[in-house]
Fold this sequence. Notes:
Two copies of one chain form a homodimer. By secondary structure, chain A is of the alpha/beta class. Chain A has a single domain, classed as 3-Layer(aba) Sandwich (Rossmann fold). Helices cover 28% and strands 32% of the residues of chain A. Chain A has helices at residues 2-11, 32-45, 62-72, 131-142, 161-167; strands at residues 13-14, 20-21, 29-30, 53-57, 76-79, 91-98, 103-110, 119-127, 146-156, 172-180, 187-188. In chain A, α2 packs across α3. The first copy, chain A, starts with a helix and ends with a strand. Chains A, B: InterPro entries: PRTase-like, PRTase_dom, Pur/Pyrimidine_PRTase, Xanthine_PRibTrfase. Chains A, B: Xanthine binds at residues 20, 27, 156. Chains A, B: Residues 41-163 form the Phosphoribosyltransferase domain. Chains A, B: Keywords: Cytoplasm, Glycosyltransferase, Purine salvage, Transferase.
Amino acid sequence: xxxxxxxxxxxGKALSDQVLKVDAFLNHQIDxxxxxxxxxxxxxxxxNDQITKILTIxxxxxxxxxxxxxxxxxxxxxxxxxxxxxxxxNVFVSxxxxxxxxxxxxxxxxxxxxxxxxxxxxxxxxxxNGQAALGxxxxxxxxxxxxxxxxxxxxxxxxxxxxxxxxxxxRVESLARIKSLDTGQISFIEEN
Amino acid sequence: xxxxxxxxxxxGKALSDQVLKVDAFLNHQIDxxxxxxxxxxxxxxxxNDQITKILTIxxxxxxxxxxxxxxxxxxxxxxxxxxxxxxxxNVFVSxxxxxxxxxxxxxxxxxxxxxxxxxxxxxxxxxxNGQAALGxxxxxxxxxxxxxxxxxxxxxxxxxxxxxxxxxxxRVESLARIKSLDTGQISFIEEN
Lengths: 192, 192
């Protein structure tokens, strides 16, 4: 997606060979017009998949999921990293390990909002080691719903997330695929 | 805002005389069409205020802030409850005490995204004791920016948040004002 790559090059920053900072438009400040384009692109790629729900995880997944949900005219659900006070025990739970933070988080989704028969598109802002996406897939399976695929705004293709998800048989659609961040240079995997 | 009140009555639930659960459309599952209407309403109420930024707090404030930002065609920024890994030390910090959780959270906003001269609309999903809004106001003041007002999706008017913010001289616009949740009945303050 060209406008996204442009934003990454112009407004993103490689903090190391592993870490890309995009807090100017995606995960702290949000650029509404770019997010609308992201939603249109995801919706276009999954428009024939009879999606009934979008599932993401708080917080940075919410904006791109929201714009996709608007395009597909379906609800979105965001998994919580902490159980909220108004959440009952009627929840699906999964574990998400963060390699960067070296800690495991429990994520929860109410059983009221992902149900048997749902066809779920999982969306997240970043794909690195794939742990968040795998946790969300786990929750969809617990609900006996189906996973239409995983939509990622920015994939760090030098990390193993995509491979892990594809090996389980799921489709991954990433709008920008980062080949390398070495020496502060951001380069992309070019696709047709 | 009638469609919001309708959603609260039909899809919300008074869990006690203090706690309103609206996770079917606002803070777990999100109803995109309702959130677009919420954004249009906030934008309409603040359309003459030369707003340059919207500031909210993760996670449930993001969707209504996003739709307002689209309408006003300006960026939004969400304060983080935890400092993110890619955040430098170049941040504004404030403390937000949660009466319900009985804990204090540090909230942070990068100095890159709220600047002197900005005219900031603060938006949040709920107003109860006002601590989150007061923390966001504190950050805007630290940035030497101005606060155009505070936009709230659901105000629990039997709690002191509105009074506290108004006493500091700020405008509060709440789209639904809950008068009482006693005995499981949701009632509103009616306004013209």
